[in-house]
Amino acid sequence: MEELTFSDGTVEVVVLPEVGARIHRLRAFGHDLLRTPADPAEHVREPFFWGAYVMAPWCNRIEAGEVRVGSSRVAVPSNFPDGSAIHGQVYARPWTVLEDRALRVRGGGDGWPWTYEVGTRIDVVDRTVRIDLTLANLSPEPMPAGLGIHPWFRRPLLVAIRGDSVHPSNIATQPLPEPVRGSLDLREVGEMALDLDATWTDLAEPPVELRWPDLGIRATMRVSAPTTFIVAASPAHLDAIAVEPETHAPQGLRRLLAGEPGGLTMLDPRRALDLTVELAFELLGDGVA
């Protein structure tokens, strides 16, 4: 399986173009920080629970089956045990590697009736990983659009998500978020409770901090997008926590059609939706509190 490696000598990213252009491995200061399988083919067998993968043209869950969007008919199949259509269409498809080592893939024109192109560019400079994502509408009609990335960060891990509001459940989500409280108040660095699966909004800057105390490593996540939400999941049966920057809230298609906040973006023809994520790494001993 082809691997692309991006490194500054201290931080290294390994990408698998054939399996969704996903990040198979992320190392900092010699330590693996993602849930990485020993056999890269495991990404194919179980695509949702390893590494870090791109989500487009929607993130999180939407309803499987037929939905009307204007004059178009959306009829995407379920790809998850709960019966939903989750994380878009490009997370495990082969992507094309361009001459400058950017990657791209085209999709749609099927149960998702609009055609689109997704591109990603990864740079590693000065202990910082920069991931630039773009989703372009190639159809002659406006297209609902969402974009995100889904990394599984290895435990033991301390997390801060500096959002004042939260959708407490990504499965049975209500139209409006609520103020954070209890185990959903992650504005200070600490352990994340088990079996949370929620979405934070009203974010401070930087929105996310990650710490691996046993490794002495800290990462600061910054996100640039027209709208930003942070989804996080901490399943008890996995040795990792997902912390996912996305451009919309859960059930983004329902939100768009119902006029609820946080819905998918209606992207005009030949326009693009962009998302940039930066992860800056440092050693906890380097003057970090």
Account of the 3D structure:
This protein has 289 residues and is mainly β. The chain has one domain (4-283): Beta-galactosidase, Chain A, domain 5 (Distorted Sandwich). It has helices at 42-45, 252-258; strands at 4-7, 11-16, 22-28, 31-32, 52-55, 61-62, 65-69, 72-76, 85-86, 96-97, 103-108, 115-125, 128-137, 143-145, 148-154, 158-167, 178-179, 197-212, 217-224, 229-233, 240-246, 265-267, 272-283. It is globular.
Features:
single chain; 289 residues; mainly beta; Beta-galactosidase, Chain A, domain 5; 4-stranded antiparallel beta sheet
What does the overall shape look like? globular
The total count of strands amounts to 23
CATH topology, by name, is Beta-galactosidase, Chain A, domain 5
Give the tally of structural domains: 1
Percent in strands: over 45%
CATH class: Mainly Beta
- Overall SS class: mainly beta
Architecture per CATH nomenclature, i.e. the level-2 architecture: Distorted Sandwich
